[in-house]
Amino acid sequence: MIRVLLADDQTLVRASFAMLVESAPDMEVVGQAANGRQAVELARSARADLVVMDVRMPELDGIEATRLIVADEDLAGVKVLVLTTYDTDEHVMRALRAGASGFVVKDIHPAELLAAIRTVAAGEALLSPGPTSRLIARALSLPDVPVTAGPDGLSDREREVLVLVARGLNNTEIAETLGLSPLTAKTHVSRIMGKLGARDRAQLVIIGYESGLVRPGG
């Protein structure tokens, strides 16, 4: 069972998501938080596997709550799936930097939300079904965003794979593009994550763009 914590300041939204999650045979709701501070506290007490986190909440917003959860050694392994009203929300990239494993828009189809929860809980990153490159380009244009170290120590093939990851391709699509087997593509991604110290594919996307290896629109 995937233990899910729901964090949203709108009671009706939480109730709707709770009904949806509980309808899945492989999931259960272990807590509901009305703000980011409650989300952090419940993540610790309820031992959730995954937090579905709204960005805009009172007291402590979803970005800071995500940062606190990811930084807590006692919560190692807890994943955060961020909810946003629009896929162009400038807060999404900051949420990914804070440690979120992905994001989805609130008008996502119910079945897609359940699939997103399963994907993130399994250790994969999930980026918005919207235009990822456009979102990243907007986020990186913000003046107060720090830049991380470049992708040093990668082979030419690994750089090719990183470019495709940063453009939002999954392992199957990477394999088809480069003429590899899906297993080989997955192995490359895992090695790149290890070399760069990235927790998941979401961080690889950020590194790819911030290092200049991939440029928005290019």
Automatic annotation (TrEMBL):
**Location of 4-aspartylphosphate modifications:** 54
Tell me one GO molecular function of this protein.
DNA binding
What CDD domains would the database entry show? LuxR_C_like, REC_NarL-like
Where does the record place the Response regulatory domain? 3-121
Q: Which domain of life is it from?
A: Bacteria
Q: Which UniProt keywords apply?
A: DNA-binding, Phosphoprotein, Transcription, Transcription regulation
Q: Which residues form the HTH luxR-type domain?
A: 147-212
Q: Which InterPro entries match?
A: CheY-like_superfamily (IPR011006), NreC/VraR/RcsB-like_REC (IPR058245), Sig_transdc_resp-reg_C-effctor (IPR016032), Sig_transdc_resp-reg_receiver (IPR001789), Tscrpt_reg_LuxR_C (IPR000792), WalR-like (IPR039420)
Pfam families recorded for this chain? GerE, Response_reg
Name of the protein described by the UniProt record:
DNA-binding response regulator
